[in-house]
Amino acid sequence: MITLGAEWLRDRWDELSRTGFVPVRLSEWDGSDAFTLADLGPLPSPRVVTGTVILGVAGPPPDSLVLVRLVQSEGGPAEPDLARFAAPDGRTYALSGEFLGSTPPKSLRVEIVSVTSALAERRLALLESTMLGDACVLIVGLGTGGISVALELAKAGVGHFMLVDGDRLSVGNVSRHHAGVSHAGRKKVYAARDLILEKNPAATIVAEPQAAGAENEDAVRALVRRSNVVVSAVDHRPSKLFLNRLCIAESRSAVYGGAFRRAYGGQVLRVRPQRSPCYQCFVMAMPEKDEDFEIASERDSLQVAYSDRPTPIEPGLSLDVAPLSTMVARLTLNELVLGKPTPLAGLERDFSAPWYLWINRPQAGTQYARLPPLSDSADEMTIMRWYGIELDREPGCPACGDFRTAAQETYGLTDLDLPDLPERPSGISDAPVKE
Amino acid sequence: MTAGPNQQAMIREAMESIAQRRPGRTRLVYDKTRRTIVAVSAADRSQRGLDITAEDAEMFV
User: Fold this and answer.
1) Quick check: bond before A362 cis, omega within 30?
2) In terms of CA atoms, which chain B residue is nearest residue A266?
3) Of A54-63, A73-82, A403-412, which range is least confident?
4) Which region, left, alpha or beta, applies to residue B56 given φ > 0 means left and ψ of -120 to 50 means alpha?
5) pTM for this one?
6) Which of B23, B27, B50 sits opposite A378 (nearest CB)?
7) ipTM associated with this complex
C-alpha cells in the first residue's frame, strides 16, 4: 500500500506535467508492506526511502525504491481494481505502484487521499469541516490531562492551539501520557505539538516551553487574549489561580480539570467570567484543609519533603484520568460551538452546571468509600457517573467579585484603609449570579 | 446471543422501573454554609445532605 496526499500531488502537478516525474520521500513501514508520504505528518517512520511519481510509461530513476505511476484512465475492464486520481488538468488517471527493492518487484496499491476532507468526513453532520478551523484554544499544562484534551480537540477539527508547559517528558510520565518512550526528555509542548499535527496536519500551533506564572504574566496574558477558550490542566493551585485571574480580566471562558489522590476521582470546573463562579470563588467555597495536596510533580514533592527520603510520585492510572480529560474536552468544545449551527450546541441545556464531579472507585479512607454498587443505585450517588453541581459566585471574590466592598463591610474599613486595592471590575452585579 | 421471551420481559420490566424513578428531578447543589453537596428535590424543595464535602483536585499530571 502506498499513501500520498492529494494536496501534495496537486502542488507538484505543474512540475510533474513538465518533467514527467517528481521525487517523493516515503516512510517505509512493516518490512516494505506500506509506504506513506513522509511529509504527511511530523512523525515519519525511522526509515524514509526515496520514490518517484511518474506520469506516463517512462522508466524510474536508478535510485528510486518505490514507483507510483499515473496513466490516463480509459475506464475500461483492463483496470478495474486501480485507484484513480482526478488531476488539476481535468483528466482522470489510473494509479499503480511498485516496490523495486525486491526481486521480482512487488506490486502495491496506491491511494491518493485528500487529507483535510478525509479527516473531516467522520465529523460531518455534527461539526462541518470549517466550523472549528478558526477556533483557538490555549492549553496550559501538557501532562496526561492536557495532552488528552489537546488530541480530542484536534480530532474534532480545532484549527489553532497555543500550548504552555515548561516541563520535560520523563520515562515515568509515559505510563499515562500519550507520548511514548521515544519522546523521553523532550519538552512536553513540543511532543504535544507533534502529536496534535499527527491528528490534524492543518493545525497551527504555538508552543511555549515555559511555566505559566507571574514571571511571564504579560506573555501568558497575550495568549489568553488570542484564545477563544482556555484549558487549565496544571497540577497545582497557584497556577490555576494565576490563570483564573488573567481569564477573568480578559473575559475568556476557561475549563479547569483536576484529579484527586491517585486519581480515585476528580472534578471539572467551567468558568464563564461574570456569569458563573470562577476558580477563586470555587476555592473560597472549599473547606479549609491542610497542605495535603496531591504530590504530582518533583516541584510538589520538594515542597512537602517530610523526610530526607525521596518522596514518591503519586501513582494513578491513565484510565482514571481519561474520564476527566474527556469532560474537559467536552466542555471546551461546548464553548467553541456556542451559537453555531450544530446539534452539539443543544448540549448547552445538559451542561448547565458549572462544576462536575466524577468518582472512579470507592477509595478507602475517603467520603466516597461506601458508595453503593452500580447495580442497585439509580437514586444514589455511585462511581463512574458524572454529577453536575450548582454553585453560586462569591460576591466578594477578589478575582471576579467586589472584594473591596466585601472587605470594607467585613472589617469596617474605609477607602483610606484600602488604597492599593483595585476598583471593582466592570460588569459585576451586586447579587450573586447563578449560571 | 438472543434473549428469550422471559429474559426480554425481565429486561423490559427493569427498564420501566428505572424510567419511573424520573432521574434528573433532583439537583445537586453546593451548600456553602454546610460546606457539603446537597441533593435538592425539585418537587418538594426538600434537601438531603449527601455528606459529600467538596475538595479541591490538584493533580493533573
Assistant:
1) no
2) B57
3) A73-82
4) beta
5) 0.87
6) B23
7) 0.73
